[in-house]
């Protein structure tokens, strides 16, 4: 996903193993980007490019004009099964492969409008109706479309437009009575029903202003921080010989306070499941629903009414505006490289997009600055090699004095000392060149080199054909692709430590579910220069959330003035033990964690966390030990083998799964009886905060909610909350999910007061 596909990695590892030792040593001991990139690039042979081309062709993103009919028929099948979301996605796939101004695309838009209507997305439905008409929707089908349009307008409260649409429809039927009698009668009944509905709507009060429901999404930081863009006045940027750049509190900060709100400098949507190679498909076309089908490829907004790229079938957007912005900024270059970019992985794609988003003045300034730093000894070098060495600057001298060129004391800041979310800040992020394995350096360098050669070929083609759809590939960087390659290699190495997983909350369960379950999914990979300033703690004092490409950092607890602002890079104390956390942080981020959580856990005797612990059947104290567990209560002499307890736990988990199946199949009463038996068994040997007990309480809450027993449901959700808080902490995303469940239950049970606390 982040790195190239397995076939390309395996191929390059074999190539690496076959290289002479002196070549391996050259790359292994290289201290600069140029000493890695130039030798590796020279090793890329035509047969290597041919193998990569074959791999890339398996992930073709070209339009196939035979596909729309297939996707429309598959969408119709899902529509008949009332799977409207899947139907909408399949119709969107048909749109992505269609020619403009054809019956294919008009029918796909029209059918998608029907799916969107059933999902209650009336604005999107209206837009698709307009698009269907623009692309030549058959006149014989227009009356049915006008009825749907009227229904949308009525539901949106746009009654004057609804009346006008009905009038236009009646005029059309009178002027061109082409419908058979039965269809005409059905249409007349629908029209009369809509007229009655309009009259009823006119007597209802005005709806609650939609703008007010989105108020919390637009919360601003308040007064601008003059030192750090996108940060509040509560934080400042500092440096330390060991910690490097980091943020500290300038005042006492309260829980929930907004500290940073930053839009990603660059982001690339993760396709979810990789598109299957064509030879692996049962059909010629892929019908799976992935993140790439559900989110805008530029702003990451969730949408079922995607707007496709006009030149490829992969890129999709939430609007025409997003599509045009993406085209102007980067997609005009990326479009023809879609299959190659999917093969080379997200990190390579992000590295390319970073250079595309850089502007001439920014990059030229950086190049000039770094060339000056290299000094006069390099002026006799060929221009391309001299510029490549320029990009080695912060690899060689990340901690060196920068007084020669008067650079501000904190890397990434401008001459006025402000750290912004820009390319200068991106460039200052550490690539840790010397810490990556030789094999990883080689894979990255060869992949970037292959991409550069394709960029050069595409640029030549654009100049030869002079096609308006093909754009020169070096709009924002030096035209020398060797320099561009060195920049992309630097960015690709930076990403292992500085890439941020952009996440979203995915709601699960059927549309009929009373209580909605949710889970966090990784949606995209982005780079946030300001967020990257935060150091890691396994017990962070902040939480991060995302709205599209915007990251929001809030205080998760009280932070005293002068205290460092800390963020979790993934390994959290509530999710894994200290040994696993430190191993992951060392292998990915190249540091040994010494945070308070790791220090405290190292000092404690090794013991199972409470959410995995067994308890004594007599006194309920925790059991401890290895193969044989003994009661931790000194006055109790009970002991039992671990294998026996593990066997009981596995049997209990099977019983819980059976109860969950009963709940899914509409048998809540039987599920409750099964879960109560499981609860009794669990309490005899599991700790009160054990994860399985939390699952039982959650199941009981859902079963009682299904039966309308709201007070009982709320009581079980509150018990589940206690388990989740022990497992994940009071400021975790998981506790937020449980609180949302509780809010749904209390709201349905009309117990409003607790919702407002």
Structure description:
With 757 residues, the chain is mainly alpha-helical. The protein is 50% helix and 10% strand. It is built from 29 helices and 15 strands. The strands form six sheets. Strands 3-11-10 form a three-stranded antiparallel sheet, with no helix packed on it. Strands 4-8-7 form a three-stranded antiparallel sheet. A hairpin with a 3-residue loop joins strand 1 (235-240) and strand 2. It is globular. The model is unreliable at 369-408 and 469-478 (pLDDT under 50). This is Protein-lysine N-methyltransferase SMYD4. Keywords: Cytoplasm, Metal-binding, Methyltransferase, Nucleus, S-adenosyl-L-methionine, Transferase, Zinc, Zinc-finger. It is found in: Cytoplasm; Nucleus.
Task: Break the fold down into its secondary structure elements and pairings.
Layout: H1 6-18, H2 21-28, H3 33-42, H4 46-57, H5 67-80, H6 84-96, H7 103-118, H8 122-134, H9 142-155, H10 159-175, H11 181-202, H12 210-213, E1 235-240, E2 244-249, E3 258-263, E4 266-269, H13 291-294, E5 307-308, E6 316-317, H14 320-334, H15 338-344, H16 346-357, H17 360-374, H18 383-390, H19 393-396, H20 423-428, H21 438-465, H22 481-498, E7 500-508, E8 517-527, E9 535-536, E10 542-547, E11 550-555, E12 566-567, H23 578-589, H24 596-603, E13 623-625, E14 628-631, E15 639-641, H25 642-664, H26 668-682, H27 691-706, H28 710-728, H29 733-748
Parallel strand pairs: 9-12
Antiparallel strand pairs: 1-2, 3-11, 4-8, 5-6, 7-8, 10-11, 13-14, 14-15
